[in-house]
Prior knowledge:
The protein is α+β, with helices and mostly antiparallel strands.
Amino acid sequence: MSNNINIANRPEYDQVIQDITDYVINFQVDSANALTTAHYCLFDTLGCGLLALNFKECKKMLGPIVEGTVVPNGSRVPGTSYVQDPVKSAWDIGCIIRWLDFNDTWLAAEWGHPSDNLGGILSVCDFLSQSQKPVDMKTVLEAMIKAHEIQGVLALDNSFNRVGLDHVLLVRVATTAVVAELLGGSRDEILSAVSHAWADGCSLRTYRHAPNAGSRKSWAAGDATSRGVQLAMIALKGEMGIPAVLSTKTWGYYDVNFKEKAFSFQRDYDSYVMENILFKISFPAEFHAQTACEAGVILHSIIKDRLSNIEKIELTTHESAIRIIAKEGELNNPADRDHCLQYMTAVTLAFGDLVAENYEDDFHADNPIIDELRSKMVVVEDLRYSKEYHEPDKRSIANAVQIFFKDSSSTDKIEVEYPIGHRNRRDEGYPVLEKKFLRNIQSQLSDDKVASIMKLFDDQNSLLEIDVKDFMDLFVS
């Protein structure tokens, strides 16, 4: 019996796949706002990656699969001396970006961190720039805008977490599409690549939740963006696609993974997501807790000398925060703590700040006040917060904190509806973002490199024109 497949009888590609493909091929970025936001996003994302290199658990994940392997004209990994194939460098860049949960965020029916796609984008552009043709950083920023848009628009209406699946699927899909186009793929090749990204299915969210929360959540996005590069390269070798991978009855994505429901969409692909992305500026914390941490910092100076007299701490929040990060009981590791609303708020109340080191085992063990405060917390939902979280013209991420003391007195209820990284607070946020970036790169790079990088940070026109190879030279050790 012949195993040959009759291509003529195959269905057309699912419309979702066609729309993604046509967007990456045809869309021209003409939004100055999106380009400026991508400029800040690029630097912030790389800064988060460099900061992560201060943590040995992150560094041990990096480097070639076979120790000592060096790829001629390969892709570099910021903050290291590794020169690898684009697939492994994408893994490493994605890993360091995501490790501390400090890069940008998108919140909708699904959540995620669209700058995770920079792992694939930057590794491929560095590879192309060194081995095939010059690639300017404008190309990188435009690819980031497209990857943000694909991931974010898919997330607006479609909740993968509600069926137990992890949002890094959307990183894989977005990276695959954008990278296939960067590599010069034809429409048929990009269609094929994207279809394979869906055929991979989904990771389970279990590694983000008790009792299984752990460090895989810190490298899952690196794994996803790396797989996107690999699938794009496979498709560009002429590998046949899977046209109805989403819609085929019984065996397609919708029936197998999405409770037989097709995806829905609020809007066409444009540059909306990059323009409205949320920056994590003040705290390396899961984004649903950012405003609670801001409120905690405000309250710290008021209550720092009365911690032992606290009777109750009331956290008022939105439904998504309750579902994802409201945790009671023992927290087993840093990855568990940085996704606990009560832990993050307790640290800011007790110490007036929250930094990555505050999640480490030693810090937790040395400061029992954190768990004492957690034990006094009550988490309640405000229905308005939950409603406005989803409204396109608001997209608030509101939290409020109020402290009640044993003598029946209380603080004011401190409410923060929009974090400093929100579009509504861009003018306030960008100067703070610059300071965050400077601190982060100073932790890994020489003074000369820091000075050269900050010149590019302050001059968008120069950034757009510089070749990716020369840009990466500034970031490698």
